[in-house]
Write a structure and sequence with these properties.
127 residues, 45% strand, 11 strands, mainly beta, globular, single chain
Length: 127
């Protein structure tokens, strides 16, 4: 059974940076897609970024493109999210997700395409 566990959230001032990490423990496949989503209070789960393990293709929401960077560490089966130039509207609970499929670009944005989810980590951007 594969498990995901996010870490790295916290409180940061506008313009600051945070780095999130999500290791996948247990029996993992060599072919999968991992993504980051976020959910603010009263809102739906929003796509942030995804990475396809097979070819290292990366996908971003328009709202974070140029500020956030998704990356992988093959040796540690970990996906990371470097968040720069943070804004108050980036405040949310951030979730790591995974599926044992190579998703096409449009599918990476749909929470329904992912089979596994972490418990989430809180990110707060405030002065």
């Amino acid at each position: 059974q594969v498990q995901l566990a996010e870490s790295g959230g916290g409180l940061v001032q506008p313009g600051g940076s945070l780095s999130l990490s999500c290791p996948a423990s247990g029996r993992t496949s060599s072919t999968y897609t991992m993504g980051w989503f976020r959910q603010a209070p009263g809102a739906g789960r929003e796509f942030v970024a995804a990475i396809r393990w097979a070819d290292n293709n990366k996908f971003y929401a328009n709202s974070v493109r140029g500020r956030f960077i998704i990356s992988r560490d093959n040796a540690k089966n970990t996906v990371n999210l470097q968040m720069n130039s943070l804004k108050p509207e980036d405040s949310a609970q951030y979730y790591c997700a995974a599926t044992a499929r190579n998703l096409i670009a449009s599918s990476t944005r749909s929470p329904e395409q992912y089979d596994l989810w972490g418990q989430g980590t809180q990110v707060a951007v405030s002065a």
